[in-house]
Amino acid sequence: MLDRFAAVVGSAHVVTGDRIGPDYHHDEALVGTPVAPRYLARPATAEETAELLAVAAAARVPVTARGAGTGLSGACRPAENGLVISFERMAAVLDIDVDNQVAVVQPGVTLAELDAATSPHGLMYTVFPGELSASIGGTVGTNAGGMRAVRYGVTRHNVLGLQAAMPSGQLVRTGGKLTKMSTGYDLTQLIIGSEGTLALATEITVRLYPRPAHSATLMAVFTDLPAVMRAVPEVLRTGVAPTILEYLDTTTMEAISRAQDLELGIAPEVRAAAEAYLVIGLDNRERAPLDTGIGLLGELLDTLGALDTYVLEGNSARLLIEAREKAFWSAKASGADEILDVVVPRAVMPEFFDGATALARAVDAHLVGCGHAGDGNVHMAVYCRDDHTRESLLHRVFALAIELGGAISGEHGLGRIKTAHFTALADPVALALMHGIKQAFDPAGILNPGVVLDGKVLG
Amino acid sequence: MLDRFAAVVGSAHVVTGDRIGPDYHHDEALVGTPVAPRYLARPATAEETAELLAVAAAARVPVTARGAGTGLSGACRPAENGLVISFERMAAVLDIDVDNQVAVVQPGVTLAELDAATSPHGLMYTVFPGELSASIGGTVGTNAGGMRAVRYGVTRHNVLGLQAAMPSGQLVRTGGKLTKMSTGYDLTQLIIGSEGTLALATEITVRLYPRPAHSATLMAVFTDLPAVMRAVPEVLRTGVAPTILEYLDTTTMEAISRAQDLELGIAPEVRAAAEAYLVIGLDNRERAPLDTGIGLLGELLDTLGALDTYVLEGNSARLLIEAREKAFWSAKASGADEILDVVVPRAVMPEFFDGATALARAVDAHLVGCGHAGDGNVHMAVYCRDDHTRESLLHRVFALAIELGGAISGEHGLGRIKTAHFTALADPVALALMHGIKQAFDPAGILNPGVVLDGKVLG
């Protein structure tokens, strides 16, 4: 096989055995054991990617695509005896098209690189998951979200077109520099969020927006978490469309503040009573509407029971947002055993939170966290050492979310960690359709087997 | 068959032969001949819809879903010997959920009815195609757009979840009251825009936004159409995100003004020199940013060569937008033989326009029109009586659009009218995937055969 892969990418760009570094054995998921793949190939072009897939399909070698490896669900944890296709050599920004407000990039480009490339043009790609070292290809795979999704949507709302490599060895083009089209089934949307199980994106066309000149950040302190969650629909009802609308419980706020040396100037007596925080980011091309929005929301938060509301100025606002982006690392440092990514209709967040907390308490587990409150996307750090107890708890928490109209993952994807829960809990009719779709794209089943479909139940 | 369908919906709700009124033989497409279906059934529930499909699938009876019949591509023109499923009895607004800012509706609810139901709550469904008597189910089928898509996106950006009936007789649920999720393949997005060929939506969850309190409308007059199109990227670059960004050529403006008795107070010497108009709608929860936006855009349009720019006040603004919504009817009244719906990257609209005009001139055909300039969605009325000449012209215009990075349809869908052009011009790899998807949903091929896939080439 090594020779066959080398014939595609050149012998310098395919390795096997111990020559595959340990970084390629895992992503950042907290659960599960790293797996060494059999082969690692680094294609330079879309055509090489497609040829690699054809060679792998002919030999029934499982293939796992890898971007920057920053995923949190084990979607790029390789299969034993499998091939990892790493996109590190396909990392060019191909086009910043100012008139159409789109960028065309290769999958290995990171969010930070795209941000740097769009900034001089006064444009931005609005998908900001916590980790800016993530690759665009990876974010397409997981349909990544992040804090600004409440205003700008997630990856699927901002990717307009793809070129993708198929196990047949063919390349397919979908969509384009088009914000709308009604011309056949939407293959772009189908590939986004498919976690490397249908086709591998080799070129990605994303939508850009003008960078707003002004921003402001409000932080409201509450004495209980459900009160924060109940405030969310009220904030959105005003029509002051926030760019960021996050909640943090007090444990998380203390942890990220310590980790990042954050001093927000909260009065000691307020901090002592605080159980939860609401962070609201606004942006605008003008300053005046921001000030109006801040005033209006400040008054509203008062009536909703906020102990105090702070308008954070430039540097401390930036530091708070950066600290929030790093909440995963604070949770990891504090010994969290898993990070949940459940999404529920935002108005039922309090009910979900109460139910999940009760389920955790029953098994002596502990949940703390923060989340994209505007989207109902709850990130909970789970402290529960025993694997079996934890998986069983997670299964019940996922079932609760689904019962409340939610889903297992809002933005991290299912990966190797959560696929088994998904296949056990999902609508069998929907699952059967997904199997049929998988069959149409990947009849040999070489693309990331065990992810999205066909997982074993752990819970 | 009649008895079998009657066993599902009751004999009062299924008819055959001459008892099927002529309205059920067609939609509003200008091309093609009405077709009388063999059966018409009106289910009352999702379960009845699914059972009808199972009965039809067992007997290999083709099924065409019908909402309000306002489509423009013949997607609900029935198959001979087929069954039409009309959703007129499934027309209830099931839920206006203010806290989650979503509505749940049955497919037969019209856009006008949903607008009336959301208005008292200060919310709105933002998809406004010209025809508000369209059913929500129909707009899901075609992925309808309309004038406000430049700000709020098209149907696929505003439908969060579906319940849909399958030819297997099963119901499937996709998505939910969730603005984001990364939990398996996105079946919601796949069904949207599939024109009744994959599954029939029996319940639709849509996203609502707060109704902005203030709006303003600008109209700029230009001496040539490419100048208007070149102004579009400049307007969007300002960051003043318009709700509406439309162009009209002078023929269209004269026609809609006459049809709607519109008097916009344009000075006679300006009107005499006018060849094209740009209409910009803004909305906001506050008045002040609107005024700033109007001022800024007015100055910009001056520098871009506008002869004159008018700020239209309340009533005349409303009348202009309404007249623009009725442009299809004005074109039809003026004897147009077809209305195109091509979409291209917005910055290449001038090139597309020049190329299409040259192709038309070569066969003595005539193109006039208007369009959603912000989205690159060009609606051209085609005046070309001879069917063969016209289809051949359209084929070359579609090919030109695709060559420029565009697609055949921006929002009307392919229907019976344009499917043949699509299957002839589309990427064969993409087409093969679409056939595989079709197979997963509808193995017997009963759902709207000849639409999206398998059309004959007319051009």
Automatic annotation (TrEMBL), chains A, B:
One of its GO terms (molecular function) is oxidoreductase activity. Residues 32-211 form the FAD-binding PCMH-type domain. InterPro entries: FAD-bd_oxidored_4_C (IPR004113), FAD-bd_PCMH (IPR016166), FAD-bd_PCMH-like_sf (IPR036318), FAD-bd_PCMH_sub2 (IPR016169), FAD-linked_Oxase-like_C (IPR016164), FAD-linked_OxidoTrans_Type4 (IPR051914), Oxid_FAD_bind_N (IPR006094), Vanillyl_alc_oxidase_C-sub2 (IPR016171). Signal peptide: none annotated. The keyword Nucleus does not apply. Its cofactor is FAD. The keyword Oxidoreductase applies. It comes from the Bacteria. Transmembrane segments: none annotated. Keywords: FAD, Flavoprotein, Oxidoreductase. This is FAD-binding protein. It comes from Nocardia coubleae.
